[in-house]
Amino acid sequence: MAENRASRYAEGVPCWVDVQLPDVEAGKRFYGDLFGWSFEDSYALKEGERVAALLPKTDGRMPTVWTVYFATPDVEALARRVLEAGGNIVAAPLETRSGEAVTALVTDPEGAVFGLWQPLAHPGFGRRHEIGTFAWAQLYARDTETANDFYGPLFHAALFGPDAKPDFGRAPVADVFFPEMPPHFVVHFRVADCARAVERVTGLGGRVQAPPFETSYGTVAVVTDNQGASFALLQRPD
Length: 238
Fold this sequence. Notes:
Pfam families: Glyoxalase
Radius of gyration: 17 Å
Protein name: VOC family protein
Mean pLDDT: 94
Number of strands: 14
CATH class: Alpha Beta
CATH superfamily: 2,3-Dihydroxybiphenyl 1,2-Dioxygenase, domain 1
Domain VOC: 13-119
Organism: Streptomyces fuscus
Helix content: 10-25%
InterPro entries: Anthracycline_SecMetBiosynth (IPR052164), Glyas_Bleomycin-R_OHBP_Dase (IPR029068), Glyas_Fos-R_dOase_dom (IPR004360), VOC_core (IPR037523)
């Protein structure tokens, strides 16, 4: 099976993303125009396959954010390991309303939030690494050694195993953002032309947090949508 159409994901591989928005319909118009997504209920589709979810924000006190989920065959066991490694649980393991997965929200020792995803009927991305789909998750940490000490053992096979093809990197917060910004994950979506995609974001009412810059994995720009959710655009090298 092609790498970008995997039916299941090994533990520690980013396998799903969602965003909680105050206005889901406005979000559909923004992302549909930007990435060519169509929609089926809360699911964003590319070529008819699920690539993300746009969910209604139910608590105004919570941030408007994209969340990346890492695959696991046992969400409760992985949540315990997160605690043992110095992280915290934000939302305990719970089956989704659709019954398609068991999920949890946790943090690393520095407070960066990420999700855990145990598939039931929904294994995760139907497509990834293509234009308009998930391509990378970057953790911006205060201390990358602390991050390495936490995520290395937690997701060792996905990061360092013989078949590892990581979709996940770490960098200091101050490399891109103000040093005072809390540690956090930034979800990256692949685009054909980063500069043009940035122009499209601003044309749709979004804004630029970090204009295009070069990384080891491609040209990246960090932007927000028209409701304030941050994400990144990634143009891979030819």
